[in-house]
Amino acid sequence: MTKPKLESSQRAARAAKRRFAGFPAMKQLSSQTYRDRIRSLYDGPAGSVLALASLVSLHMPLVGRMFKARKPDVSQVRSVLDIGSGAGQILGHLVKFVPADAVIVGCDLSHQMLCRARKRLRSPRPLYIAADMTHLPFAEAAFDLVTCGYVLEHLQDPMPGLREFHRVLKPGGKLFLLATEDTVPGLLTSRTWKCRTYSRAELEAACVEAGLPWRTQLWLTPVHRFFKLGGILFEAEKRAAAAVN
Ligand SMILES: C[S@@+](CC[C@H](N)C(=O)[O-])C[C@H]1O[C@@H](n2cnc3c(N)ncnc32)[C@H](O)[C@@H]1O
Fold first, then answer.
1. Which of 39, 104, 108 to mutate for ligand 1's pocket (most ligand atoms within 8 Å of CB)?
2. pLDDT tens digit string along 87-123?
3. Which of 142, 35, 144 lies closest to 98 in space, CA to CA?
4. Which domain holds residue 184?
5. Residue 4 has what pLDDT?
6. Which atom of ligand 1 is nearest to the CA of 161?
7. 89 CB under 6 A from ligand 1?
């Protein structure tokens, strides 16, 4: 008889978490108005401390360790698109680990963030393009790899973004994605960066619907795995078209 009580208290806790999670205006504003707000958030002072925040939270060095450990393996990549490049946190690792002749493109909604990334990385390699992840200015099947770190949470509905990632990936191409999870640290992040959070099940189902089934779930470190920190990290693959006989 105690089980239903427990379940209802769990449901209440989950509902309370959902109420607190995210930037409330995200659900009320039109997607264009929300996007404009996010662009000015990152263009402004908050964006100027993004690189430092990623360093202090250890995200930047720990994601670097993952690339070094080939999770994801980028050693054969010929073309890569980093979506929502921010201060170039992931771009910096790509410059270091993808083959020297691979094409690296960084795109972001915020022109200022792209300027900051270029200045910080001091590398002639990445091409920088201001673009919205739901309308990517690239041809179909243009990239072997798409990386996207803590950006998809800026969409109320992930599907338009995921469908674009799928469109620009080659069949068999990989997606390496990091997203804010609906844990307590995730909720705090969502308040700071005016975004939403995801549950693993919801995000995995959305990826399957977009044709990007997960191959592996990843963690920054075993400690992050144990305490469920660092968000949802996974590698997905665009299903290759079935062979025609
Ligand atoms: C938290 S930062 C992530 C930076 C970096 N990728 C990382 O791994 O730390 C989020 C970035 O996504 C960008 N962004 C937000 N909404 C976007 C959209 N609709 N299309 C493209 N970029 C977007 C922001 O301008 C910001 O630079």
1. 108
2. 999 999 999 999 999 999 999 999 999 999 999 999 9
3. 144
4. 2-237
5. 53
6. 19
7. yes
pLDDT band at residue 199 under the 50/70/90 scheme: very high
Tokens found for residue 233: 């990290």
Residue 243 lies in a domain: no
pLDDT band at 1 (very low <50, low <70, confident <90, very high): very low
Does the C-beta of 93 come closer than 6 Å to ligand 1? no
DSSP secondary structure, 29-67, as one string: S-HHHHHHHHHHHHHSHHHHTHHHHHHHTTHHHHHHHHH
pLDDT over 70, % of the chain: 89
Mean pLDDT value across residues 68-81: 97
Domain-embedded: residue 104: yes
> d(Cα 8, Cα 4) in Å, to the nearest integer?
6
Cα dihedral 92/95/98/102 (nearest 10): 140
Measured from the CB, is residue 151 less than 6 Å from ligand 1? yes
How many of the other CB atoms lie within 10 Å of CB of 51? 19
Q: Whose CA is nearest to atom 13 of ligand 1?
A: 84
The atom number, within ligand 1, closest to the CA of 59 reads 9
Residue 211 has pLDDT above 60, yes or no: yes
Number of domains in the chain: 1
Residue 21 lies in a domain: yes
Atom of ligand 1 nearest to the CA of 149: 8
Question: Which residue has the least CA distance to atom 12 on ligand 1?
Answer: 84
Where residue 6 sits, what CATH number does that domain have?
3.40.50.150
Question: Is 170 contained in some domain?
Answer: yes
Question: Can you give the pTM of this predicted structure?
Answer: 0.91
Closest residue (by CA) to atom 1 of ligand 1? 150
